[in-house]
Amino acid sequence: MLIVQKYGGTSVGDVGRIRIVAGRIKATRDQGNRVVVVVSARAGVTNELIARAKELCPNPSERELDQLLAIGEQETTALTAMALQAIGVEAVSYTGGQAGIFTDMVHTKAKIRTINAKPIERDLNDGKVVIVAGFQGISEAGQTTTLGRGGSDLTGIALAAALRADKCEIYTDVDGVYTADPRVVKSAQKLGEISYDELLELAASGSKVMQSRSVEFAKKFGVIFEVRSSFNQNPGTLVKEEVAYMEQVVVRGVAADKDQAKALISNIADRPGSAAKVFRALADAHVNVDMIVQNVGLKGLANLTFTVPQADSAKAVAALRPVLDELGGEVAVREDIAKLSVVGVGMKTHSGVAATLFQTLADAGINIEMISTSEIKISVAIDRKRADEAVRVVHSAFKLDRA
Amino acid sequence: MLIVQKYGGTSVGDVGRIRIVAGRIKATRDQGNRVVVVVSARAGVTNELIARAKELCPNPSERELDQLLAIGEQETTALTAMALQAIGVEAVSYTGGQAGIFTDMVHTKAKIRTINAKPIERDLNDGKVVIVAGFQGISEAGQTTTLGRGGSDLTGIALAAALRADKCEIYTDVDGVYTADPRVVKSAQKLGEISYDELLELAASGSKVMQSRSVEFAKKFGVIFEVRSSFNQNPGTLVKEEVAYMEQVVVRGVAADKDQAKALISNIADRPGSAAKVFRALADAHVNVDMIVQNVGLKGLANLTFTVPQADSAKAVAALRPVLDELGGEVAVREDIAKLSVVGVGMKTHSGVAATLFQTLADAGINIEMISTSEIKISVAIDRKRADEAVRVVHSAFKLDRA
What we know:
Number of strands of chain A: 18
Oligomer: homodimer
Helix content of chain A: 25-40%
């Protein structure tokens, strides 16, 4: 089998951890597999480099940031290759550019365009383990680029696609995908399998396991991958298009994003284009809007409510000022909001999920500020202080603690 | 003017030092010059990386060492470019590969083959300062290579040659080239100029200012360069083919290499090929032999004396064992040897230098163990404990303290 393994920053956090990772790689290889490994920078290194950069220049060019940040992964790839050599495994390290990962020119958040897998295949055919620097690529013009947040996962999944790998393993510091955050819900259960769509909704709902971007890429190219821990030998969670018991299980997980603020625009003129103007202004200010609810009120005036990341709330208000001057209306922000979401593809064919969710929160005396739904998710905005409690009662209401 | 500046590891040792270097670069540019800068890794970083590597693998592949070590210079180039951006100077950083520095495939001690200066010239024409990572290049096959000891100086001088720079400045932590090590001889004088050949002999004689290799390259391509300090504004030492007062000054400098051992092979068969066998065996063992003296003794037996770096003395003895088994003779090693050298192109046309040197040492009661001479240098092997004292009396005897 050809297996792609990706190890995150805590998995290669120091020399001792790198040695353990090398042992895992060797074991995989000793089972007769060909192995390509993607590694992140040591945990903390990227932030250290950024701190040093900011000390010298508050606003360095993104090209130079990429030149600088790329060295974090270069270090761990070379060290991982050496750790393998020390235990008798032939290994060779690649920068993103050497691995033929070609991207566009958008520094610090480049998109992968093509991968020339020939050099890696050649080394695999020579019996070597190939270690590739995650998070980075090269533009057609030969510039070093980085892929932005979650970039190393993306490198792993993109390489698995390009190499038509039989298996892709994403090693991180958690065991897999859980029905809820195990730090909040003691009885949370690890899922054996989850669909791309469910994991995407969970990622968008505050679950920190993986960035949406990598999951979307995997879905697009049909890369089946397993999320698992490099700190133990437990099986992880398999992520793929269709999961076996999709029909029976209605809700797969509960997640909370505690970093939200709610903005209420009241008494805005209810005419075509009003909402468009509001959200265009927010988009131009690079404010990421999440839930949106609109009610038409009396006298041709509407209320528009939406949530944004809390850090963006001031920026949002500033961006709305000129629009509200034009359309009328006022804006009020509530900062201490959490978004709770229940996710599951089974919802498509099962009714009653919303009712159960609302009743459960009502029984616990937790007020619902906003509701928004997708085909496989229901989200509610609630008081942030009660978010953990809400996750626990909802998790229990959907019987997720009995896997 | 087009000026190439090279800053060593102490000159870019931390964020504060990098900021000072950026200020110097800006000043050079503000005088209307086009500037290309070569930087080393921060002092200590290369050793840290090697230590981490050795912890993982006692004998890593040299390819992986190069992949790892190259990041040291990549960091300082990006940070230096950012420091320039912070003070309003457009700057762009290059890895060795991006700078078109093509080398052979000999990892950890690659030789520069060609430089494609086009990318640098394009950025210079766009008004940018170009910062190039020293010590590294790329092979035709796209592998990262490093140039070995003194590699960053070599990058600076090679770029000056390729770009036909008007000036090349090698910034280090000393003010220039002195008549003797100023830490040993208080009255040592900085030389305004020195010829390539003299600096080469000084480099081979224990002066740590520059590696021979870079000076040889500069001589070959006629690159005039200045050795100066980045810690002050003092003028440095200009290094070139012919120096103005060559004829008048006989001795330009005194240097001591305190890291030598002397090996005496006695009673070896004095027939053609004996010496060749001895030195072939040493070369095959990668032992660097320095001074060599041979005396023919009685009965067709010869004595052969030579010096080696002290660290190599055990290796030398081991390499000689089979040769001596064949040719007869015994080897005795004396570890605590220093080599003192006086250097100056004026020696070619002045006699009496050797006599003055020997008399001075005799007056000080310092015994001469070996003598070897070149056209512009006389070296003697002496007791290491008396090396500093010897440098001082010889420096004074040749009136080097009155520049």
